[in-house]
Amino acid sequence: MSRSLSAMTAALLVAALSIVSWAADRPALRVGDPFPSRSLPRLHGSSMKIPDDLNGKVAVVHFWTDWCGACREEMPSLEALYGRYKGRGFEVVAINVGQTKAQIRKFIDDMKLTYAILMDSNGEVAKEYGVIGLPRTFILDRHGIIRYKIVGEADEESLRKLLAGLL
């Protein structure tokens, strides 16, 4: 029993060190950085190039998955903010990490979400952006500059306060 526990502990340590090593190789996106340009497929057809297709708009770029409890709680809040501010040049872009179209579509339909849903099916873009935990949210100004970076969950009130100075 103790031998298998030691082997499991060693395997977990190696995995943790690999993640830390991987993250150290990729500079994290910071507040004040321009958001890196990347094109991703939409759930319903064409693709979107971020931040180019958001030029002139304040945007929330939200990385998520349906098994993430905090993501499940945030998505309706993002929908409420989108409904409230879309007429003022506000967009929400939710990037699903690693799930199939069928899984994403079911979740979106159940939640009745209307904002842009993009797919990062193999997690490559999330890795490029230094996203190693979900949810991860970036708030961009009208020029594609990162103004806020949220690691973990954010409630609707907090997001609204952050957006107030940008809209």
Keywords for this structure?
single chain, 167 residues, alpha/beta, 5 helices, five-stranded mixed β-sheet, Glutaredoxin
Structure description:
It is a single chain. By secondary structure, this protein is of the alpha/beta class. The protein has a single domain, classed as Glutaredoxin. 40% of the residues lie in helices and 23% in strands. A five-stranded mixed β-sheet has the order 5-4-3-6-7. It has a two-stranded antiparallel ribbon with strand order 1-2. Helix 2 links the parallel strand 3 and strand 4. The radius of gyration is 17 Å and the shape is globular.
Please write out the topology.
Blueprint lengths: L1 H24 L12 E4 L5 E4 L7 E7 L4 H17 L4 E8 L3 H11 L4 E5 L3 H5 L7 E5 L5 E6 L4 H9 L3
Poorly predicted spans: 7-24
Q: How many β-strands, per DSSP?
A: 7
- Estimate the mean pLDDT confidence: 88
What's the level 1 CATH class?
Alpha Beta
CATH superfamily: Glutaredoxin
In which range does the helix fraction lie? Answer: 25-40%
SS field, number of helical segments: 5
The percent range for strand residues is: 15-25%
Summed up, what is this model?
By secondary structure, this protein is of the alpha/beta class.
